[in-house]
Specification:
Strand content of chain B: 5-15%
CATH topology of the domain at 8-259 in chain B: Amidase signature (AS) enzymes
CATH topology of chain A: Serine Threonine Protein Phosphatase 5, Tetratricopeptide repeat
CATH architecture of chain A: Alpha Horseshoe
CATH class of chain A: Mainly Alpha
Strand order of the largest sheet of chain B: 1-3-2-4-6-5-10-11-9-7-8
Oligomer: heterodimer
Order of helices and strands of chain B: HHEHEHEHEHEEHEHEHHHHEHHEEH
Shape of chain B: globular
Strand content of chain A: under 5%
CATH architecture of the domain at 8-259 in chain B: Alpha-Beta Complex
CATH superfamily of the domain at 8-259 in chain B: Amidase signature (AS) domain
Number of strands of chain A: 0
Largest sheet of chain A: none
Number of strands of chain B: 11
Helix content of chain A: over 70%
Number of helices of chain B: 15
Structural class of chain A: mainly alpha
Largest sheet of chain B: 11 strands, mixed
Shape of chain A: globular
Order of helices and strands of chain A: HHHHHH
């Protein structure tokens, strides 16, 4: 179960401003952390639809999918995330996503 | 000569007036250490050759009738996180069990230049990570006031040697309370100066934006005398501040009538031991009797201090401790078949559980997906905490709080509960996050005879105010171990 207080606080922020990127991302993390993969993916998709350059959205969505053993979808999102990281020059995320993609391809 | 009650001042005077020699003092302290330290475990390494060499230098100066430096003949101890040339320097970690430093930390060099004699290196939590000294990679330190209890941490050995009288004074490092909290637990004075006041060159880094260097002594005056010789700009530490060093002794004994003392409500709430509350409130009343105006204040973001601290500190630690890989630093583990395996085995064998926990936590909060959510947020909250103090110091000259929420707890009591252990620092981490100076002075004992500490905080570089209020409170309460 996600932390209900945190989910409620994040939803309150999103009710006031549905395009708040960090609140949407944090809500996705809350669901992802408690294993609610589909709910998490829904939030990450809404985030990326409005903020396609929010690189970590791809990364965290891929991690949620990998934990749910949906490897092909995770790889696809990582590839999109790597493109985004190159586009936005986010070397930090790029390195970590390339490493994760490499691990998924090997194993 | 009874060395138990020697202070920085009286030790120097004894040598100056030829009541004793520096060499005789060193003899007496090593005899006491040999007799008593096995039960306390405060020392990790004694540096006798170095101590006797320095004592001979001081005695030669005294024999010639030359002017003696300010700490001439004062036997001190140094936390084992400071590099000491040709002496084992472990940071309390097995990974550095055989590391011999090739140079002196600036603070060590300055204290020796001022005439102090370094008796040895004191035990501490591994890489200064802990609040009880139970995370030492070698053996825990026992509180000299009650051997069943912890001395606090991470500079527990440095506090214990002053409390036990196996050194006149000592130095430690304070990243989240590691000078002030053990000072409170052991019934001595511990001072954390402003960030940048004392050079960190040669300090084995834990969290570089939070690490501070400061002294322990039996009295506020001892702490002032030590700080006087430690403070000041030094180019080898780019964060050391180019701010003139005042004469700290000038403030000792100055009246405090009319000073405004802030008492933050957030430090007297849930979780504070009733005996600690009573003792600190009694200390505040003594300041009121001395003519201070007591002003209730609020530091509203205090509740975020512990989570903020454990994000920032662990993030910096995970970066600082990357160098202990068996190549650059650290005892290399055998049998690694690949480079990555050698790194893993070295770090697995060399680091203790708490250090590993903090490295993993720090790596997590710095990872790409969580950086914004944790590290950046923590940095923003850190600014809010600093702003709380800035606003408070517009209204008051100093702030008084408990140093720790409880007196010293029993060995083993909190080892299975890291969060409970972290809360031992709840009143001290804020000063590290804000970079302001703070001192802990004894303010009485619990019914079980355990010391209780009162913390006095000041504005950046206002150590003179912290020392002035601390000295006034110390004498009003007559609660120090020195007489």
């Amino acid at each position: 179960m996600p932390d209900e207080n945190r989910v409620a606080a994040l939803k309150e922020i999103l009710d006031a401003n549905p395009d708040d990127a960090f609140a949407r991302y944090a809500l996705g993390l809350e669901y992802s952390g408690s294993g609610e993969t589909d709910a998490a993916l829904a939030e990450f998709q809404r985030l990326l639809a409005v903020h396609p350059d929010y690189t970590n959205g791809y990364f965290m969505a891929a991690q949620a999918l990998a934990r749910a053993e949906r490897k092909d979808e995770a790889q696809s999102l990582l590839q999109q995330g790597i493109e985004c990281a190159r586009r936005t020059r986010n070397q930090h995320a790029l390195t970590e996503m390339e490493a994760m993609l490499d691990e998924l391809e090997r194993g | 000569m009874n060395i138990d009650r020697l202070t920085v001042d009286s030790a120097r005077t004894a040598v100056l007036e030829k009541q004793t020699t520096a060499t005789a003092l060193v003899d007496a302290f090593y005899q006491k250490i040999d007799a008593e330290d096995a039960a306390i475990g405060a020392y990790l390494t004694l540096c006798k050759e170095r101590a006797y060499r320095q004592a001979a230098r001081i005695d030669a100066l005294a024999d010639k009738g030359d002017a003696l430096p300010p700490l001439a003949g004062v036997p001190i101890a140094v936390k084992d996180v400071f590099a000491t040339k040709d002496v084992r320097t472990t940071a309390g970690s097995k990974i550095l069990a055989n590391f011999v430093a090739p140079y002196d930390a600036t603070v060590v060099a300055r204290l020796e230049e001022a005439g102090a004699i370094i008796l040895g290196k004191t035990n501490c939590d591994e890489f200064a990570m802990g609040s009880s000294n139970e995370n030492s990679g070698f053996y825990p330190v026992h509180n000299p006031r009650d051997h069943a209890r912890v001395p606090g941490g991470s500079s527990g050995g440095s506090a214990a040697v002053v409390a036990a009288g196996t050194a006149v004074a000592s130095i430690g490092s304070d990243t989240g309370g590691s000078i002030r909290q053990p000072a409170a637990f052991c019934g001595v004075v511990g001072l954390k100066p402003t960030y940048g006041r004392v050079s960190r060159y040669g300090l084995i880094a834990f969290a570089s934006s939070l690490d501070h260097v400061g002294p322990f002594g039996k009295s506020v005056k001892d702490a002032a005398l030590m700080l006087q010789c430690m403070a000041g700009r030094e180019p080898l530490d780019s964060t050391s501040a180019d701010v003139p060093v005042p004469n700290y002794l000038d403030q000792i004994g100055q009246p405090v009538r009319g000073l405004r003392i802030g008492v933050p409500e957030e430090y007297f709430g849930e979780g504070l031991d009733p005996e600690v509350r009573r003792a600190v409130e009694a200390g505040i009343q003594e300041l009121a009797k001395a003519g201070c105006e007591i002003v209730p204040i609020s530091l509203p973001n205090t509740k975020y201090a512990i989570p903020t601290y454990y994000v920032v500190a662990t993030a910096e630690a995970s970066s600082n401790l990357a160098r202990y890989d068996g190549v650059r630093y650290g005892a290399r583990a055998a049998d690694g078949k690949t480079l990555a395996e050698m790194y893993r085995r070295t770090r697995d064998a060399g680091f203790g559980a708490e250090v590993k926990r903090r490295i993993m936590l720090g790596t997590y909060v710095l990872s790409a997906g969580y950086y914004d959510a944790y590290y950046l947020k923590a940095q923003r909250v850190r600014r809010l905490l600093a702003s709380d103090f800035h606003q408070a110091f517009a209204k008051v000259d100093a702030i008084v709080t408990p140093t720790a929420p409880t007196p010293a707890f029993k060995l083993g009591e909190k080892m299975d509960d890291p969060l409970a252990m972290y809360l031992a620092d709840i009143f001290t981490v804020t000063a590290n996050l804000a970079g302001i100076p703070g001192i802990s002075i004894p303010c009485g004992n619990s019914k079980e005879g355990l010391p209780i500490g009162m913390q006095i905080l000041g504005k950046h570089f206002d150590e003179p105010m912290v020392l002035r209020v601390g000295h006034a409170a110390e004498h009003a309460m007559a609660g120090t171990v020195a007489e």
